[in-house]
Every structure is written in C-alpha cells, then in structure tokens.
Amino acid sequence: MPGPPVLQGPFTMPMMNGFVPKRIQPWIYVFFAFAFQLSGGIYAGAMPHFMGDTCLMREDVLMIVLCGVVGVNMPFPFLFRFKFRFTNRQLLLNAAIIIAICNFLCMFTESVPLLCALSYIAGFFKLCGTFECMSNIQLWMTPKRDFAIFFPLLYCIVLGDMSLSPWITVQLTYIFQSWHAMHWFMIGLMAIVALCVYTMTHNFRFMKPLPLVSLDWLGCLLWSALMIEIIFLFNYGEYYNWWDGLQFRIVTFMFPVTFYITIQRMRHIRHAFIDRKAWNYKGLIPLLGLFVIVEMISSTPKVLQSTFTGSVLHFGAITTSVFYWVEWLGTICGCLFVLFYIKVLKLKFTRLLAIGFIALLSYEVAMYFLVQPGLNIERLFVPIWFRTFGIAIFFTALTIYLEEIMPFQHFFMGLTMLGLIRNGVVETVCSGIFSFSLRHHIADNFARGIPYELSQVMMISVKQLFGATCIIGTVILFIFLLWDVQPVRKTLKKMPYWYVVGRLLRMRNS
What we know:
73% of the residues lie in helices and 0% in strands. It is mainly alpha-helical. The radius of gyration is 23 Å and the shape is globular. 44% of the residues are buried.
C-alpha cells in the first residue's frame, strides 16, 4: 500500500505553521537539537563550585553526572513508540519543560539520590527531544535516507555539544561566580525552545496514533540499575578503599542479583526492553569489544591528563577550558572525515578504524613525551585534537557498522546495548582502574626513596601509566592492521520511511 504523499514527496515539515519561512524551518530544528544536547541535570564544568556550595564529595558529583549519562542511553527502544503515539509538538514541549523543571529542582536539592534521579530524567528527555528533532529533518539532511551521511552530521551535534556544554558551564560559572548560572541559562534556553515550538508548530499526525502498550518499563529500570551499580562500584571504589567499605560490599552483592533478574526477564517476556535475539547478530560482539577498547584508551584524560594539568602544572579551570574548543574542532574534523572516507573515497572500513585508533594512540604517545614540568599549555593542543579526532571516527563509523549488521527493528536496541559500554560504564571502570594504579605508583615511587616532592612523584607516576597505555595500544593497533576485512558493504542500507516503521510496530502489537 503506498504511503502518504507528504512522506514521499519533496522535503516538507507539515507540523510547522505557514508563517515560518520554509528555508529556515529545518535550521530551527537544528537549533532545537543543539539546545537539547547542551542540557543535563548537573554540569561537570561547575564541579568545584557545586562541591563547595553543597559540601558534596567529588565522587557524589560524578555519580550524579553519570546518572544523567545513563538516562541518555535508555530511551532508544521507546523512541519510535513515542513518535507514533504523540505529535512532534507534544514531544518537544514536554521534553523542553521537563528538562527545565529538572534544572530548576537541581538548584535547590542537596540529596544525592534525588539529584541522581533528576539527572537521569533530564538525560532521558534530552535524548527524546534530540531524536524528535533529528528524525524530522533527516530527509533534509540526506534525501536518500543514507545513514553514512546522517550519522556523521548527527554526531557533529551530539559529540560537538559534549565539548561545548562544559565550556559554556565554565565560562558562566566564572562570570557569575555561581554554579547556578548554567542552570538558569538552560532553563532560559529550554523556555525559548518551548516558546518557539508553541508558536511555530501545530499538532500534526501522519498516521493513526499507536497506544503505549507492551513497553517494558521494568526492563528499562533493571538495565538502568545494572549500569548504575557498575558505575557506583568503580566511582566510589577508591573512596571506600574497595572491599573495606560496607557500602561497596553491599552493591557488589546486589550486582549479580540484578544481573540475573534482568537476564531472566529478557529471556521470558515477549516484548523485552532488549530482545534476546538482538544479541545473536554476527559481528556484534567484536563491535562491543571495539567500543571497550576505545573507552579504555579515551579514559586516560579523566585521570592522567587532569592530574598532570591540575596537580603538576597547576592549571585552573578557566585555563584548561580552552581544551574544550580543541576537542570540539577535533570532533567536527573526525565526523566530516568519516563522511568523506565512506562517501567519496569508499575505502575499506577497517582502514578507517585503524586511522581512528592511530589518532587515539598518537595522543597517548605524545602525552608520554610531553609529561614534564613547566610545559606550555599550547603544546597539549595537538594531542588533544588527535584524541577527539579518533573518538569521533570510532563513534561515527561503528554506529554505521551497527546499522549494517542489525535490522532496523533491533537497531535502536543495539544503540542501547552499545550504551551499556560507552555511556559511562567502561569509562568509569577504566577511570577507577587508572585511579587505583596512579595511587599504587605514587606509593611505590615514594617507597623506592626517590628524593622528589609530591608533584614530581605524581608526574613520574602519570608518565609511567601513559607509557603502559602506549604499550597496550600498540599491541591493539597491530591487531587492527592484521584484521584486513570489509565488514560494511559498499552500498549501505537506507533508512526506512517512518510510515513503514509505524506499520511494522502496529503489526507487532496486534
């Protein structure tokens, strides 16, 4: 049966009111997506001020921030159900208002569990709003519905905002001398989004709404709890001295119980949050392994670089905020390079991954040689650019690869499966391991009787860990160079029309 003409003709945005010029309509939605990606619950860029004002520990603030990262990962299996149940106007208004409310409540709450919940909710609706914006302009971005074009452009916004958001936070916090500044900024930005949506759009449906049935909300909560437990263990491990802490032991014993219940529910219900069949696709496990490697290599700045720039070079937050612009530039270059590589050069996919990994390894090697007292900050720009350039290549290319190995009905579940690794979990695990290793090396170097002060010993320990990471990365790079395969076809799959997806969902629930 042919689809509605509005979906098969030239690009249009039928939800927009007639007085809005057609040329700027998609750009308005780009602005909306940009605004949603800037949002969060608690902003890591304001961590020192937030800790001083609320008397919370660094581990508490990181836990709150990472709960927001977990929240971003969880809506993927629900996104199309929301899209086919509510109108674009309803989804964007609700997302903007809820994010604004969460930002407002976070300013007047000091309870860590409540802040974690608010951050999770803000992250959840952050992704809902972003998806609704980008799904409505994907035909404008790629008239042929080509993921190889869509994802590089999408990640320019997603990964780019991951660098711009902390920079804006640092600047506003410095100007107004309060961590509340970023929250008021986001409340105002979400109010602008809501006002634009309210005045420029109207309720429009391209098909009969689907009821919200067969949604595995309990499964969503179980997978979220599983991620949060892992993050808790490695975030608070150093604080509780690992097994010496009662809370650490309690969560350690809770984890296998949660894991067992989650897996059993996935296996025995019809509409699981993540279908058990989604784990059986060929190539998925190596893909997850690649993300583990990328997260492991890219987690060094969280501990080693920050220790070096803060405790050894004594750079402040404003001084190091320039790094965010370097990261943003590396991200944009990496995403556009993937687009150029796949659509213009059309070379082997694994060579693209090898280029990305070489960029990541270049950062580790450069940092090993740059760790020295009195280093000029400008000398760190190139290594940081290489790191974010490589991360952008991996995130974009592997997401395209995921769409190639999984059918569309499981693809968004696959994004959540990748998020179980990349959305804070492996990064927190590796950061915990690096923190423990750094403490061990510092103690070991002092025990050797090295006649240096603390900052010098810390510099030596950081250099040792960068060296170990270089060795591990070099071994992995050799594996990449030997793995000369072509996992992605030259002719990539196209995105289906939304009415086709809606019809499949209606058939599934009938």
